[in-house]
C-alpha cells in the first residue's frame, strides 16, 4: 500500500566512486574525501587476471578498508568461479556483490549464496552480452550492473549504444513488476554524460576517473549536481 496515495516513491541517483582509479598508496585519504564529497556507495573492482586481463585487490584489502567508513561496499567480481569466494567477501564486509553472467554455469546458486549472507546480490553483464541473461535472473537480484565498457580497466570510453540497452532493461523491469531492482552503470561515466545515463533509468552510477582525476570532493559534488532532480521510480 502506498503511504501517500497518488504520489510515486522516488529514489535519488546514487554516486559510486570506483576505487580502481584511487591512489592505492593512500586509500585512506581518498576514501575520506569520497565521504566528504557525499558519495553513496564505494565500488570495489575485483579482478583475477583470468576473467579479465588485469589484477587488482582481494578480500584482505576490502577488510582493511572496512573500518574507514560506514559507506556500503559494492564488490564487482570480475573473476572466474565467483561462488568459491563469496564467503570471503561477505566476511570482509561487502554489502553488495555482483557476479558476471558470462561463463557462469550456476548463477542462481551463487546469487542465493550471496543473499544467504544478508548481502544484496547483483548480476553484471558485459556490453556484448544479450539482455536475455538479465531477464532470466532478474527475480533473484537486487540490482543489475550493465557494463558500458569492456571490463578490465578504468578510463575507457563509454560505448554510446549502451543508452538504448539501459532503457530496454528499465522497460523490461517495469513491465515485469521488478521496478524495485536498481540498474548500476559502470564504465566511462563522466560529468558530460551522467545526466543522460541517469535519465535512462539507471540509479547507481559508477565513476572512476571522473572522481579521482583532480579534486575528489569537488568532482563528486559536480557529478551530483548534474543528476540533481533526476530520480527513478522505486
Ligand atoms: C572496469 C571497472 C570500472 C572502472 C570504471 O572494469 O569495472 O568500475 O573502474 O572506471 P572509469 O569510470 O574510469 O571508466
Ligand atoms: Zn566495476
Reported CATH architecture? Alpha-Beta Barrel
Number of helices: 9
Radius of gyration: 17 Å
So what's the oligomer here?
single chain
Each distinct ligand: D-xylitol-5-phosphate, zinc ion
CATH superfamily: Aldolase class I
What percent of residues adopt helix (DSSP H or I)?
A: 25-40%
Secondary structure: number of strands: 10
Q: Tell me, what's the shape?
A: globular
Parts with pLDDT < 50 across at least 5 consecutive residues = 1-9
Task: Report what the structure shows.
The chain has 234 residues and is α/β, with parallel strands linked by helices. It has a single domain, classed as Aldolase class I (TIM Barrel, Alpha-Beta Barrel), CATH 3.20.20.70. Helix content is 33%, strand content 20%. It contains nine helices and ten strands. It has helices at 27-37, 59-66, 86-92, 107-116, 132-137, 162-175, 194-199, 209-212, 216-227, and strands spanning 10-12, 14-17, 42-47, 73-78, 96-100, 120-125, 143-147, 182-186, 204-207, 231-233. It has an eight-stranded parallel sheet. It has a two-stranded antiparallel sheet with strand order 1-10. β4 (73-78), α3 (86-92) and β5 form a beta-alpha-beta unit. α1 runs parallel beside α9 (216-227) and α2 (59-66) packs parallel to α3. The longest helix is centred in the last third of the chain and has 14 residues, at 162-175. The chain starts with 9 loop residues before the first strand and ends with a strand. The model is unreliable at 1-9 (pLDDT under 50). The protein binds D-xylitol-5-phosphate and zinc ion. D-xylitol-5-phosphate is lined by residues 18, 20-21, 43, 45, 76, 149, 151-156, 186-189, 206-210.
Amino acid at each position: 500500500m502506498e503511504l501517500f496515495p497518488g504520489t510515486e516513491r522516488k529514489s535519488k541517483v546514487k554516486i559510486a566512486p570506483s576505487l580502481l582509479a584511487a591512489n592505492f598508496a593512500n586509500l585512506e585519504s581518498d576514501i575520506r574525501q569520497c565521504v566528504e564529497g557525499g558519495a553513496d556507495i564505494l565500488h570495489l573492482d575485483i579482478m583475477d587476471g583470468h576473467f579479465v586481463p588485469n589484477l587488482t585487490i582481494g578480500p584482505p584489502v576490502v577488510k582493511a578498508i572496512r573500518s574507514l567508513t560506514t559507506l556500503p561496499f559494492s564488490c564487482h567480481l570480475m573473476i572466474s568461479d565467483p561462488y568459491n569466494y563469496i564467503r570471503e567477501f561477505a566476511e570482509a564486509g561487502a554489502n553488495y556483490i555482483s557476479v558476471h553472467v558470462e561463463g557462469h554455469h550456476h548463477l542462481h546458486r551463487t546469487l542465493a549464496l550471496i543473499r544467504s549472507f544478508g548481502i544484496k546480490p547483483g548480476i553484471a553483464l558485459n556490453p556484448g552480452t544479450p539482455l536475455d541473461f538479465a531477464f532470466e535472473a532478474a527475480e533473484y537480484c537486487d540490482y543489475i550492473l550493465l557494463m558500458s565498457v569492456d571490463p578490465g580497466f578504468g578510463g575507457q570510453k563509454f560505448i554510446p549504444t549502451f543508452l538504448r540497452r539501459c532503457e530496454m532493461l528499465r522497460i523490461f523491469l517495469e513491465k515485469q513488476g521488478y521496478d524495485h531492482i536498481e540498474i548500476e552503470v559502470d564504465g566511462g561515466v563522466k560529468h558530460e554524460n551522467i545526466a543522460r545515463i541517469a535519465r535512462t533509468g539507471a540509479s547507481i552510477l559508477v565513476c572512476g576517473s571522473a572522481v579521482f582525476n583532480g579534486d575528489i570532493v569537488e568532482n563528486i559534488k559536480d557529478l551530483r549536481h548534474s543528476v540533481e532532480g533526476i530520480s527513478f521510480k522505486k
